């Protein structure tokens, strides 16, 4: 998922943005086409669609080649009502007589994004479980060693947190804000009619997920809870499927029962950077997203089951993806950016 500095407009012809793209009249650009059409016209959005198609194709080939069984595909059918509402809202936004066609346009974009993100997340789960099943040697010992070299000791930090229950519970709640932000950001960007930033968000989100999974494929790790003996590898937990997949015991990928099992790099840390970046133009919200994601990154250590180096690698991954997108992305299609 990737970004370029947005071209802001205030209803009149402006100066060039950071990327050198000339601005156009916000009103003219926004009224020329429906919001959903504007999203589809964004170059970065077309990359998202290509990435999703490639991911689904790879999943189909890899699961068959590795003898894995995929179940729970019926979950995708639950998206049918949402997709139908997105299409209906888009059609209503095209009616010139409608007094709330702007509201319908925003609703169509949000509903479509929710469907797209859900399908992508399910495809990513299949990719994650498939690469874990490749059974590369675990690198927990090396990651713990790097943490120690950096002066960080996970067990000491975890014991400190458990002695401070209020901080521990606060971090637990903040860690769970990741999922809320995944949904909230498309809503806010759609309301502000920032289709360029929304397309970049979708691309940055998707790219960091795929790259994190591929990186973790050759350097897999269980997590500190298992490595330091806080829980057993097969004990019921948020990571209980890891050992079963890695040891070849679990050969079924159930989309109705999935877990986030990537250790290095941390996706929570990577997405924290992405979330802050794509909301940088949302006045009144950007500072809040900065605070939320700073704390969420810290919370990923105990509640994401991450080593410190996982967090640092996740941050580095997001920065590299953002930098790369700014360097290689073509010009974005201007959209209405209300002041």
From TrEMBL:
It holds the Pfam family PAP2_3. Keywords: Membrane, Transmembrane, Transmembrane helix. The chain crosses the membrane at residues 43-61, 73-92, 104-127, 201-219, 260-278, 285-301, 307-325. It comes from the Bacteria. Residues 142-323 form the Inositolphosphotransferase Aur1/Ipt1 domain. Residues 1-22 are annotated as: Disordered. The keyword Transmembrane helix applies. This is Phosphatase PAP2 family protein. It comes from Pandoraea apista. The lineage of its organism: Bacteria, Pseudomonadati, Pseudomonadota, Betaproteobacteria, Burkholderiales.
């Amino acid at each position: 998922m990737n970004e370029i500095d947005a071209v802001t407009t205030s209803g009149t012809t402006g100066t060039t943005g950071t990327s050198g793209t000339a601005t156009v009249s916000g009103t003219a650009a926004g009224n020329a086409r429906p919001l959903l059409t504007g999203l589809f016209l964004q170059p970065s959005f077309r990359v998202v669609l290509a990435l999703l198609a490639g991911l689904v194709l790879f999943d189909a080939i890899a699961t068959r080649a590795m003898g894995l069984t995929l179940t729970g595909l019926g979950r995708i059918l639950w998206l049918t009502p949402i997709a139908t509402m997105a299409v209906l809202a888009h059609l209503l936004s095209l009616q010139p007589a409608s007094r709330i066609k702007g509201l319908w346009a925003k609703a169509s974009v949000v509903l479509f994004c929710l469907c797209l993100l859900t399908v992508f997340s399910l495809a990513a789960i299949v990719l994650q479980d498939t690469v874990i099943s490749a059974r590369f040697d675990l690198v927990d010992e090396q990651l713990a060693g790097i943490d120690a070299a950096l002066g960080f000791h996970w067990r000491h930090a975890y014991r400190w947190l458990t002695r401070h229950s209020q901080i521990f519970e606060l971090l637990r709640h903040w860690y769970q804000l990741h999922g809320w932000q995944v949904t909230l950001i498309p809503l806010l960007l759609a309301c502000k009619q920032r289709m360029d930033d929304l397309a970049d968000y979708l691309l940055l989100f998707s790219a960091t997920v795929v790259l994190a999974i591929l990186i973790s494929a050759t350097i897999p790790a269980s997590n500190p809870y298992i490595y330091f003996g806080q829980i057993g590898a097969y004990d019921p937990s948020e990571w209980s499927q890891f050992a079963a997949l890695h040891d070849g015991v679990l050969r079924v990928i159930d989309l109705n029962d999935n877990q986030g099992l990537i250790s290095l790099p941390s996706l929570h840390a990577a997405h924290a950077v992405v979330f802050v970046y794509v909301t940088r133009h949302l006045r009144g919200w950007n500072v809040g997203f900065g605070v939320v994601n700073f704390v969420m990154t810290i919370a990923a250590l105990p509640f994401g089951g991450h080593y410190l180096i996982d967090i640092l690698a996740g941050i580095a991954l997001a920065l590299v993806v953002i930098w790369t997108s700014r360097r290689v992305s073509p010009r974005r299609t201007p959209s209405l950016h209300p002041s």
